[in-house]
Amino acid sequence: MNIQTLLNQRIQAAMVAAGAAESAPAIVRQSAKVQFGDYQANGIMGAAKALKMKPRDFAQATLEKLDLSDLADKVEIAGPGFINIFLKSDWLSQQLAQFRQDDRLDIKEVNAPETVVVDYSSPNLAKEMHVGHLRSTVIGDAVVRTLEFLGHMVVRQNHVGDWGTQFGMLLAYMERLRAESTEVSMVLSDLEVFYRSAKTCFDEDEAFAARARELVVSLQSGDEECLALWDEFINVSLTHCEETYQELGVSLERQHVMPESAYNDDLQNVVNELQEQGLLQESNGAQCVFMEEFANKEGEITPVIVQKTGGGFLYATTDLAAVRFRQHTLSADRVLYFVDARQALHFQQIFTLSRKAGFVKESTQLEHMPFGTVMGSDGKPFKTRSGGVAKLSELLDEAKERAYQLVAAKNPEMEEEELRNIGRVVGIASVKYADLSKNRTSDYVFNWDTMLSFEGNTAPYLLYAYSRVASIVKRSGMDVSALTTDINLLEPQERALAVKLCQFEEAIQQVANDGMPHFLCAYLYDLAGTFMTFYEACPILNAEEEVKNSRLQLAVNTASSMKLGLSLLGIETLERM
Ligand code: ARG
């Protein structure tokens, strides 16, 4: 049940009946303070202004057309013309009783599912995944899970970089190792080292550099031997990625890889089409598109370069081909790009050009979902202690170890195997949650102590809160899922918890609409806090039968909501820790 949507519809209809334009929004929000009720409609003032009416008069006229008696016991006008809505406790209990019916907690699939193509993770395969890939991978995956849960048809696209000039250098290095009869697979087991060694040869050895350039040409013209070598490299690199996805609990698999190289044969077509449409202009020998939208104050335009002097194609050309593929072959209604904010101009240009060239339907939404940088405590992009970029796999190992140390200190009598498992779950969850819980668009500081803290909006806090709620239910010794007695909301803390539980769907919807998982994180953190306040004020296990049964159902609903919410974020839960 999405209360906000329901109230928006009802109040807007009443506003229209009272004379407002069809397009006048009701703007219903959750109230910030209890005295303003549970929800507040803020749209009256705007609509009244358009009608040249006094806001309070228009609010009154709207109320005369509004019947919320089934779900609210008080609806009042406040301040300059807000409408405050106080929900009925009985109605809240009925909503919660519906939660019992299925493990979706009564959240329905959308009526009109969309095909949503989600471009995420998309690392460059020349190197190993590093901390910079965490955000796209983890945030993208949470949004994908949420969209699927709501019934949308999601197509994952891991747009990995496998086709740049760097590959010439890497192939030349593989060739050299072969010639020295060094076991190539051994050296490839650490891609960072491999990349660095290849780069050193490239920078210091002119013959090697020349060979590398030759190999790029052979590769791109489809030379078989060269392709075989390249295949071997790509395979190893993708296997490294997959290990990281598995460790992270990310739903990407080999079938979702749609690499840059896959578009190679279509790039000339893209350029030709732009040419036919008269969009291309030659500039210093390169093929460019100049769009006025991208002019600066001096009128200078940053062009989109689609073909270099000499015929080579670029990152942008591939992205244009990808847009066409996503529209025509994948039939996207929406395409979401979880890519670093520093590529904002690139995507604006690709989207604008795709529309001009008719590569996408008018109704198709292309959305860049930018994210900020992971920073170190020194205020610069996060690096390892030795100053290198932090490899994701090493970071995750450290997270597991640190979490293990923490839980082992708390539970000296627990078996090693269970401790290791808790350490793994908590460690991985901490890294993911630290990322997910921050507003996507801002930078954030990577800090072990804050992300592993048992206090505040962190994974350890939420996982611990979940295990506590689960253990209360377990200790009742009852099959709570079979309880069908009434849920009575008598105490204010019971009511507050019920309202919070009923707002779950609103949080999920926000994640799906805006691609921002931090809304769900904030919701879960609030829910856990609301439960703790309730639990302190309202004893469960030693209350008398009827009260106990009612409160137990609130506890079960809390546990189910937390578990489902965390699973949509891609976070595993623990029944004890
Ligand atoms: N491989 C690119 C990088 O590491 C990201 C690709 C994002 N997706 C896209 N369609 N351009 O920066």
Automatic annotation (TrEMBL):
Similarity field: Belongs to the class-I aminoacyl-tRNA synthetase family.
Listed EC numbers: 6.1.1.19
UniProt enzyme class: ligase
Ranges spanned by the short sequence motif 'HIGH' region, renumbered to the chain: 123-133
Family annotation (Gene3D superfamilies): Arginyl tRNA synthetase N-terminal domain, HUPs, Isoleucyl-tRNA Synthetase, Domain 1
InterPro entries membership: aa-tRNA-synth_I_CS, Arg-tRNA-ligase, Arg-tRNA-synth_N, Arg-tRNA-synth_N_sf, ArgRS_core, DALR_anticod-bd, Rossmann-like_a/b/a_fold, tRNAsynth_Ia_anticodon-bd
Subunit structure: Monomer.
GO molecular function: arginine-tRNA ligase activity
Superkingdom field: Bacteria
Record flagged with keyword Heme: no
Compartment(s) where it occurs, according to its Swiss-Prot or TrEMBL record: Cytoplasm
Catalytic function, reaction form: tRNA(Arg) + L-arginine + ATP = L-arginyl-tRNA(Arg) + AMP + diphosphate
Name of the featured protein: Arginine--tRNA ligase
NCBIfam families per record: argS (TIGR00456)
Residue ranges annotated for the DALR anticodon binding domain, each copy included: 462-577
Residues of the Arginyl tRNA synthetase N-terminal domain: 1-87
Keywords: Aminoacyl-tRNA synthetase, ATP-binding, Cytoplasm, Ligase, Nucleotide-binding, Protein biosynthesis
